[in-house]
Write a structure and sequence with these properties.
Length: 526
Amino acid sequence: MKKTVLSTKKLYLGVELGSTRIKCCLINENGNTISSGIYNWENEFIDGYWTYRLDEAIYGIGQCYLDMKNKFTLAYGFNLSHLDGIGISAMMHGLIALDGANRLLTPFRTWRNNNTIECAKELSDLLHFNIPARWSISHLYYSIKNKESFVPNIAKITTLASYIHQKLCGVSTIGTNDASGILPVDENGEYNQKFIDLINQKFLEHNCSLNLHSILPSISQVGTPCGVLSPEGASILDPEGDLLPGCPLCPPEGDAATGMISTNSIATRSANISAGTSIFGSFVLDKPLTNYHPEIDVVITPDCKTVAMIHCNNGTGGINALIKLVDETLKSFGVWKDELEIYDILFQSAINYKGDLKHMVSYNYVSGENLTDIKYGSLMLATSPEGNLALGSVVLMQLFSSFITFSLGVDILKREGYSFENIFAHGGIFKTKVVAQKILASVLDQPVSINEAASEGGAWGMAALALYLEYSKKVPLEEYLKTIIFNDYHIKTEKSDEHFKHIFNQYKKNFLACLPAERKLGEELK
């Protein structure tokens, strides 16, 4: 096989630990993808909590890197042994509690756990600021309030990205966006000290002497070198031992940050939407929120602009279940189809559907959903005798249900007078060209764009942040993205379709009217 000549002299690696995949992406000094790798994993429900095993996280990034390295070797004819920058990203929020020897005190509690709802509301009322149930401070306060045995031994709390970062280089730190999913961070890139003092006092009311000043990870600004790859870290990334230690690491970041980067959505009045197992959007505000909304989080971009974030625990759960059912049905008849082909065929049936959904509704809730006050999720599809139960209608409902809960949060921003010039989308649901993008544009009644870089997802965005270590003293992050990273990427935009907009508005009435039935079903099937 003829090998490709590697024209670049510098290589930058981004690793992102997502909800269903760990992915790594290798880019050159122009932001072009050189190689990528994946490792599939899943959360587990253990002892009443959604969790991921952190030993599997360590194993998974090694397997992901080896997948990428093997593809690199096949393409270029030699082993990858040197990197010029590394960035680690992961799912935000949840709780990783460590003792003084950096030992895990309790299994990692992920963003998906909603047992913290009441604690989050109590903190929100205390601060007059929305503290979501999935934020790290909500999980910590829940543990304190319930007098869990590990609490007195806590020396530090952190996030998954920060935990992995420290494993690779020995430095305990966190990026600004990831930190803003632990506790509110101001536009100077520092934890809100007034809030810390109020929460510390709340801890004392529960006879807990933990001090947030000492247990929170320190924040590092974007473009700041945060340690170098240690020999131990090199062996974690590359179990085969080819990778040399010594390259710098940028601040570890949350998956919201990498979504902003990979879609070039950090300028004011820009937005991005990440649609996968969960769905969330980051809307960069040109003015502060004037009202308190429990449906909207306030976080910051990597360069410290205020962001309204809308987060839904459930995204493509209904679609994924339907694809699995169709795949098993086909195989039972001896028909084997590639999964992407099944997606293409089913999505095409939705885009070709000309009927309505007046008498039908579906819910994609695999888990609870805070935004619609659903404690226990259930996948549900219902139709009256007048409903048109056809392939196109069922798939269209699943697409609508993937986006509708998210749209309820966007409706709040619209009522508050916010508008956005650019909305970019990314995630696996958009791999089938046009369909999900057009449906989302119709649901939001606003054009939705996709660019080439976003197809590589957050790992690519994290690699771009690692590359920014080379530029941070020369240009601001926003200018770096515009002039160096995105200067020649192709963008595809889909506008709202009047037909699907009309059907969605009918469907939305059914969805809101039947929420009590979904709520009751989840409670009964628990």
